[in-house]
Structures are given as structure tokens and as C-alpha cells.
Write a structure and sequence with these properties.
- The chain has ten helices and eight strands.
- It starts with a helix and ends with a strand.
- It is α+β, with helices and mostly antiparallel strands.
- α3 runs antiparallel to α5.
- The structure holds adenosine-5'-diphosphate.
- The site of adenosine-5'-diphosphate (ADP) has 22 residues, from α9 and α10.
Length: 501
């Protein structure tokens, strides 16, 4: 762009000057051709008129010497012809010099016509030959010839003047075109030189960068030669080599990424195995102690049986969580109401909350709102979030479950936000967004699969799950799900919170 713009501007300027010059030449040529044509026509008509008048003078003299009246008839015709010819000259007499001459020629012809009409007659009414002779030799003709000669000379001068002016204009134009050609050529040369310098500098800069890249690639994939003063052709080859090498590096990177992922998966498996071992060992230890202490079946107290039952249940839960994560059951989706989703998890958690002295505040969803969902899976998500919130909240704390309608500005779709917040210690800083990764846990007996499974379920329902800390303390988890279209959104202020416990 930096190079193209000045070139385009200079090109456009030269084109404009060239076009203007051509237009001027065309106009001047046309004007001078018109003037010359006009003057030549004037000269021709003046000469024709001169010949007509000469004939009239000759006929007068012939009549005077012969008395033959056919000469007089001919003079009549010549007078009419002269009148016609001088009228044809009138439109051409536009210049300051020609106009008065034409006027005088017209006056001369009028004088001749009048004198011819008033020539003396003989007793029998015929024209007197002597009078005709006098008229034929009169000064009227000399004056007329003089005026016609002057008129022809004026036209001659104008033709001369016009061709001189043409010559001057042609000379000026030639000089102008010469100047334009020289300036255009010099400007082109300067511009070309500037562009060549700039391109040269750019090539050197590119070569330096390429040299740098090549240097780095040398260490990874082998040598790439870049000459000190490269030409465009060299650069093209070097670029091709660099591009090939970069592809190799990218392929290696991808391979190493795959390896890292695999290593991470293996590490996760190790973590899982450790978590499971921990999960299984604790209940097994309690169970083993009870069984070892009892020598006979009657030795099992009801307390022992309850502990055994609880530990077996815990083992079952751990194994189930692992199974759920590894092999999730296919979702069975249908249209369900929001109340259906939250009622059961709320009821399940109410007793536990009571035991912990925690209040669960439930803000119900706007009425008649439905989502397409697998009820069992979404209940599991809400249950996970409530369970985590209760675990993080101290005695006399508060857990809130709010359901708020939201409008997506971008897609004009409505969605519902299921928000679970607590007044606990908040999310562990060092985990960041990793809390949604599998097997990430800060709890002694946790296996870190709850949030990971929840995220998978929510995303499978076309939704999103996010986590954040609340400024006044505690964590907030938001599950956003698309609503079945046709249901209207109601704002929170239209509903009143109620205590679920
Ligand atoms: P687990 O409960 O087995 O640890 P989760 O995937 O449910 O697994 O949770 C992962 C981690 O996220 C928890 O160990 C905890 O550190 C953090 N976490 C989850 N919910 C909360 C919460 N409400 N407040 C604070 N930390 C939380």
C-alpha cells in the first residue's frame, strides 16, 4: 500500500495531463480548421463576385459599342447573380476587418444596380449606348474591385494568422509533451529507485528474521542456509525450506502433545487408583476390625452392623462414581419442569443440612418453565453441587439454590441459571479452573469426580457450568441450561425466596 499509492497517484496525474493535452489539441485543431474553411469560402465567393461584376462591366461596354440589347439582358441576370453572391458572403463577414468591407461591397453593388436602372434612354425608350459605356467605365467598378481585393487580402491575412497561431500552439504542445515525457520518465526513475531501495531493505529485514528462525530451527531439525545479501529467488527457496522445517517441528510438537496427554492420563489413572485405594482401605479397616473382634455371630452388636452397612454403602458409592465416570449411561432426555429437577435433591439434602445447622434457602424458578433433560442426570448435578456446598459451609452457615431466567443477547434464546452458593471457605485458589478436571480434590476422602461428571452432563445438555468466589465469602456455581422455547422469562423480583428446610 505504501508503495502502490504514490505510483498510482503519479500515474493518474500523468494520465490526466495527457488526456487534457489531447483534448486541447483536438479543440484547437477544430477551431483553426473552421476559421481556415470560413476564410477560404470567403475568398472563393469574393472572387466569384469579382468575376460577375467584371462580366457586367464588359457587357456594358459591348452594348455601348454594338447596341446589341442581348448584352443588357445579360447584365440584368448578372446584377441578380451579384446580389445573390454578396448575400452569400454576409454570414462569413464576422470579423472586425471583414464586416465594413462587406458593407461597402454591398453598397457598391446597390449603387451599380441603381445607376444601371437609371441609365439615360433614347427617344424610342431604349437604353442609350453612350450612357451604358460611361457606366461601364465608371469609378463604381474600380471601387468595387478595390473593396473586393481588400476583402480577399483580409481573408488571406486571417488564413495566414490562423496557420501561424496553429504553428505556435503546436510548438508549445510539443514543448509541453517533451517536458511531460521527460518529467514523467525522471519521476518514474526516481520512484522505481525508491521502491527498489525499499524492497531491497525489506528483503534484508526478512532475511534477518529468516536467519533468526533458521538459527532456531538449526538446533531442532538441521541446517537452513540464508545468504548475507539474498535475492528474492533465494528467499523463496529459504522460505520453502523453513516452511518444511516448521511443519516437521509442528508434527513433533503434536506428537509430544499426544505423549504428554497420555502421560497425564496415566498420572490421572495413578491418582484414581490411589484415591480408590484410600476409599476402599478406610471402610475395609473398620469392617476388618469389627469382624476380627467378633468371635461368634452373636458378638455383632447392632452398632457394629450399622457401621458395617454404612461402610459397605460408602464402598458401593465409590465404585459407582468410578463406573459413572468411566462408562456414563446414555441420557434419556424428555421435557421436564425445573421443579422436578430440584425437588428431590433438595429433599435429600434437607436432613443433612438440619444436622449441620445449615439453612438451605430455595428461590423457586419462574412458573411453567421447562427444559429437555435426562431427569436422573440433572438431579445428580444439583445433588453434587448441594453436597459440595454443605461440605464447604460451617455450622450456622447458609446454602442458597436459586433459579433465575436469563436472556442470551447473541442468540435471542432464553435460558435458566441454576445457582448454588454457600457461605463457606470459597474455592481453593491453587486449583483455579482445574476443579472441573477429573480426580482433582482437596478433601481427605474425596475422589474428585463430582464436578467433572457434572460438567460432562451439563455440556451434554447444551449448557454450561461455571464456578466463582463470592466477594463476601463462599463459592457460587452456576449451571446454565437452554429453556424449551415458548416459555416466558420472569425476573427474580417477581418471586419470593422460601426456606427449603
Ligand atoms: P470431591 O467432592 O470428591 O472433592 P468434586 O469434583 O465434587 O470432588 O470437587 C472438586 C474440588 O472442588 C473439591 O475437592 C473442592 O476443593 C472444590 N469445591 C467444590 N465445591 C466447592 C465449594 N462449594 N466450595 C469450595 N470448594 C469447592
Amino acid at each position: 500500500m505504501q508503495v502502490t499509492l504514490p505510483i498510482a497517484m503519479v500515474g493518474a496525474l500523468l494520465l490526466a495531463i495527457g488526456l487534457y493535452g489531447a483534448w486541447r489539441v483536438h479543440r484547437l485543431h477544430q477551431r483553426s480548421a473552421d476559421i481556415v474553411a470560413e476564410n477560404v469560402a470567403g475568398i472563393r465567393r469574393a472572387e466569384q463576385l469579382r468575376a460577375t461584376i467584371q462580366q457586367a462591366s464588359y457587357r456594358l461596354k459591348r452594348f455601348s459599342s454594338t447596341g446589341d440589347e442581348r448584352h443588357l439582358e445579360e447584365i440584368d441576370r448578372l446584377t441578380r447573380e451579384a446580389d445573390l453572391r454578396q448575400r452569400q458572403m454576409t454570414p462569413l463577414s464576422q470579423t472586425a476587418e471583414a464586416s465594413p468591407l462587406i458593407d461597402r461591397i454591398m453598397a457598391g453593388i446597390d449603387n451599380f444596380s441603381t445607376a444601371f436602372g437609371k441609365m439615360d434612354s433614347t427617344a424610342d425608350g431604349r437604353v442609350c449606348p453612350l450612357a451604358a459605356g460611361q457606366l461601364g467605365n465608371s469609378a463604381i467598378f474600380d471601387d468595387l474591385f478595390a473593396e473586393l481585393d481588400a476583402y480577399i487580402a483580409v481573408n488571406d491575412q486571417q488564413v495566414d494568422h490562423s496557420s501561424r497561431r496553429n504553428q505556435t500552439t503546436a510548438n508549445r504542445l510539443m514543448f509541453g509533451l517533451l517536458l511531460l515525457g521527460t518529467c514523467g520518465g525522471v519521476a518514474g526513475l526516481l520512484l522505481g529507485y525508491a521502491i527498489a531501495r525499499r524492497v531491497g531493505r525489506t528483503i534484508v529485514e526478512v532475511a534477518v528474521s529468516l536467519g533468526d528462525v533458521a538459527g532456531k530451527l538449526n538446533k531442532v531439525v538441521g541446517p537452513v542456509a540464508v545468504t548475507a545479501n539474498p535475492r528474492i529467488h533465494d528467499l523463496e527457496m529459504v522460505l520453502q525450506t523453513v516452511s518444511r522445517h516448521v511443519s516437521t517441528v509442528v508434527e513433533r510438537l503434536q506428537a509430544s502433545e499426544r505423549e504428554t496427554l497420555r502421560a497425564e492420563q496415566l498420572a490421572a489413572m495413578g491418582q484414581l487408583a490411589a484415591g480408590m485405594a484410600h476409599e476402599i482401605r478406610n471402610p475395609l479397616t473398620s469392617m476388618k476390625t469389627i469382624v476380627q473382634l467378633a468371635e461368634r455371630p452373636e458378638d455383632f452388636s447392632s452398632q457394629d452392623i450399622r457401621v458395617l452397612e454404612e461402610e459397605i454403602e460408602r464402598l458401593e458409592q465409590s465404585v459407582q462414581a468410578l463406573l459413572d465416570y468411566a462408562r456414563p449411561a446414555p441420557a434419556e432426555k424428555r421435557e421436564v419442569s425445573l421443579e422436578e429437577i430440584v425437588e428431590q435433591p433438595l429433599a435429600l439434602m434437607a436432613r443433612r443440612a438440619d444436622r449441620q445447622g445449615i439453612a438451605i434457602v430455595f428461590v423457586p424458578p419462574p412458573p411453567h418453565q421447562r427444559v429437555i433433560a435426562d431427569l436422573v442426570q440433572l438431579r445428580q448435578v444439583v445433588l453434587n453441587l448441594l453436597l459440595n456446598a454443605l461440605e464447604a459451609t460451617p455450622l450456622k452457615g447458609e446454602v442458597r439454590l436459586e433459579m433465575v431466567g436469563e436472556s442470551d443477547q447473541d442468540h435471542d434464546d432464553d435460558s435458566i441459571g441454576i445457582r448454588v452458593s454457600d457461605s463457606g471457605h470459597g474455592l481453593p485458589d491453587h486449583l483455579g479452573s482445574r476443579i472441573f478436571d477429573p480426580f482433582v480434590t482437596t478433601k481427605e476422602t474425596g475422589i474428585g469426580l463430582g464436578l467433572s461428571i457434572s460438567r460432562r452432563i451439563v455440556e451434554d445438555h447444551g449448557g454450561q457450568i461455571t464456578a466463582a468466589n463470592i466477594p463476601q465469602g463462599g463459592a457460587l456455581f452456576t449451571v446454565r441450561l437452554p429453556l424449551v422455547s415458548g416459555h416466558h422469562r420472569t425476573t427474580t423480583s417477581e418471586r419470593s425466596p422460601c426456606n427449603a428446610s
